[in-house]
Amino acid sequence: MASLQDRSRAAVWHPCTQMARLADVPPLPIARGEGPWLFDTEGHRYFDANSSWWVNLFGHSDRALHDAIKAQLDTLPHVMLAGCTHEPAVRLAERLSARTGGALGHACFGSDGASAVEIALKQSFHSWKNRGQPEKREFVCLRHSYHGETLGALSVTDVQVFRDAYDPLLMRAHIVASPDARLGNEAEALAAMRALLAERHAQIACVIVEPLVQGAAGMVMYSPDYLRGLRALTREFGVHLIADEIAVGCGRTGTFFAWEQVLGEAEAHRHRGPEAQRPSADAGHWPDFILLSKGITGGTMALSLVLTTDAVFNAFWSDDVSRGFLHSHSYTGNPLACAAANAVLDRFDAGQLDANRAQAERLARAFAPLAASSPRVTHLRQRGMILAFDVADAPPRFAEAFHLAARAHELLIRPIGHTVYLMPPYLIDDAAAAFLADAVSKTLNDVLA
What we know:
Layout: H1 2-11, E1 30-34, E2 37-40, E3 45-48, H2 51-54, H3 63-73, H4 87-98, E4 106-110, H5 113-130, E5 138-142, H6 151-155, H7 160-163, E6 174-176, H8 186-200, E7 204-209, E8 213-214, E9 220-221, H9 224-237, E10 240-244, H10 260-263, H11 265-269, E11 289-292, E12 304-308, H12 310-314, H13 335-349, H14 352-373, E13 377-383, E14 386-391, H15 398-407, E15 411-412, E16 419-422, H16 430-448
Parallel strand pairs: 3-15, 5-6, 5-7, 7-10, 10-11
Antiparallel strand pairs: 1-2, 2-3, 4-12, 8-9, 11-12, 13-14, 14-16
Helix pairs in contact: 3-13, 4-13, 8-9, 14-16, 15-16
């Protein structure tokens, strides 16, 4: 175990990690995964409470996902999507479009979340340019937003620890007050957005948001009402709206797309299962772009998608190559990844959202006593399968200390600042919910003691 940790420190540049800290926070040497559990090289187990950075929907080594990938591996592991096509990519694009009632009928494939953000930003600007409005080249994001770490995505990210070192390289985005249910400030945040759009709409290409939950900000949650107001504002001022659902899509917030909660229950129901084929009466209330990655392949393959409208797509329709969207990468629409994503959609078609609602209720019941048991636990909050709370007067390096202490309680968890959060696989029975609440409580006691 120590040998693998030492070799990793010497040879692997770990992501989101200050390498100088690895001597004090050695990486867990993971040998295998099964269900919600990860097992290290010595056989110790850890409950994957953050779904390995929010990607693992159904647990590790899920048989259905593996079977789909293996079947595809035997027929077509990869072919370039430029000048070719294949069934897994076409079927995935059709099924995701159907879940928006056809409102977002065109899927552009990327490799990861940041690349999806880059694609959407470029498509927004380029579509305005093709429509004779090249001056619309400015972007808007929310305070404390996170959209990735490539230069374009980092330009619409407002988390200083990621952004500050590269600030001289970045485009200047407008950063507007973000809604936060803890502050009750949604009206003020919308007013700030209206003021900016009223002044700069002729120069603004798009607004990008994380619907309902701002993840890296510390699981900041807000209501669908803000998004309804934002959609109305972007329509009023002629600005694209990008819904970055890389973290919150694929059922994390209680609906497959978080944006379905903006439409309301009756309309959102039209986009579940077989009924998803019916046209949407509320197509105009969807955003201009929805971005997916992370959970779309259930934690098996790297893949991202940008879903967009006829209006955006048609702006590129031309025999002139310069008016085309030429963004690509070698593994665009990889058949193995698309096969995994189709297997994920099969699970949702079979009723996964109903199961998630029951699992979310189990988490809520299990964690309800936590706030009462510790006065330093504040703002216990939940949106679907995302649960979080803040720790008042957290000690220095709280997140690191919590992560390390949790290992002794068979828990793999990485807080954000002073916010402890869970985004577990969709495998929460009563025993798992009770285990998580107990392990988190014991870890908190260890750290605060």
